[in-house]
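Hi V.,

Quick status before I head out on leave. The structure for the redesign project is tokenized and pasted below; the design run finished overnight.
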């Protein structure tokens, strides 16, 4: 078995484990939670999955390259705040305000890409800087005022029906998330863009020597992450309506945790969007389940940290196994055999 097949095998195992965790969590909270096994609880899980899911889809591409984007949460909120300012303060119609939400977040993503690809800043530092700047910029533009998007009974109430729930109560946001997942999956698995993403994560120098324009690709990938954060901002606004300045910090951890739980390697080169979506639902189920048991948000943070540590340990095990297979392959090729 070569390294590529080994990676696929261990990715499949980690996805299977993530599914198992999801099922176990759902059964556990159905037994011990308050009214967790109900249609209302399922809808609440979906509601909590929208903004996490869109951010997670975008950052999956980033993490596959071996990078990280810590600005997801504040990028989402910055876009939603400025879009809300356009709607509430500047007299823009709701469609233009939503487009501005996506545009702002996409621009922040592009800035991340330029800082990392062309100015050679480490992804952690670059996105940490834009995380803080984005949070402050949104508050400056809105003058630290809370922005509100249309409610169901307002003249622009159709916004809720299109992005949140239909008049019959159907969670239409789940359809949008499924469509985004399908499109992103084709992009990652069936196009040159996706192949180059995996190549950069596997070996950036080899990718450059093979003719891939690594700097341009990285800029595009971080821009894509910003775009999905903008979509996340729209769906966050559709579910929660109210956008508070200087918030969003920490929400990116939910998306990154979902990606890692789903089997995408933090070292790059390995990952899948199907695993990401499983991880997202693990995070949403955990959040709603702990709430059904009457536990506060800090319990979710604590348990999420434990789950992420477990996922990273599994990823380290996969890497160690792949390196062991590589060493055996080289030994056989050179006519030697490693000591047992």
């Amino acid at each position: 078995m070569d390294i590529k097949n080994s990676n696929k095998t261990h990715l499949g195992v980690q996805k299977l484990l993530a599914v198992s965790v999801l099922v176990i969590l759902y059964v556990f909270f159905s037994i011990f939670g308050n009214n967790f096994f109900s249609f209302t609880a399922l809808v609440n899980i979906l509601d909590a999955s929208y903004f996490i899911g869109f951010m997670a889809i975008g950052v999956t591409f980033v993490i596959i390259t071996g990078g990280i984007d810590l600005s997801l949460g504040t990028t989402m909120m910055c876009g939603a705040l400025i879009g809300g300012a356009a709607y509430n303060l500047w007299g823009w119609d709701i469609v233009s305000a939503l487009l501005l939400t996506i545009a702002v977040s996409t621009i922040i993503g592009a800035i991340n890409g330029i800082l990392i690809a062309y100015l050679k800043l480490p992804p952690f530092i670059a996105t940490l800087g834009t995380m803080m700047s984005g949070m402050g910029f949104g508050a400056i533009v809105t003058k630290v005022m809370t922005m509100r998007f249309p409610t169901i009974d307002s003249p622009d109430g159709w916004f809720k029906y299109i992005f949140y729930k239909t008049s019959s109560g159907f969670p239409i946001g789940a359809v949008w998330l499924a469509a985004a997942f399908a499109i992103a999956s084709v992009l990652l698995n069936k196009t040159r863009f996706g192949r180059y993403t995996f190549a950069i994560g596997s070996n950036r120098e080899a990718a450059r020597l093979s003719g891939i324009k690594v700097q341009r690709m990285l800029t595009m990938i971080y821009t894509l992450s910003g775009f999905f954060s903008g979509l996340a901002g729209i769906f966050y606004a559709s579910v929660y309506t109210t956008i508070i300045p200087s918030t969003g910090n920490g929400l990116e951890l939910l998306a990154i945790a979902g990606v890692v739980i789903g089997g995408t390697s933090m070292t790059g080169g390995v990952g899948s969007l199907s695993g990401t979506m499983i991880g997202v639902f693990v995070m949403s189920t955990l959040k709603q389940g702990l709430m059904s048991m009457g536990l506060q948000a800090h319990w979710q943070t604590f348990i999420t940290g434990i789950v992420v540590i477990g996922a990273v340990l599994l990823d380290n095990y996969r890497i160690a196994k792949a390196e062991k297979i590589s060493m055996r392959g080289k030994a056989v090729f050179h006519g030697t055999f490693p000591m047992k």
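Above is the designed sequence. The chain has a mean pLDDT of 89.

G. will cover questions while I'm gone.

Best,
W.
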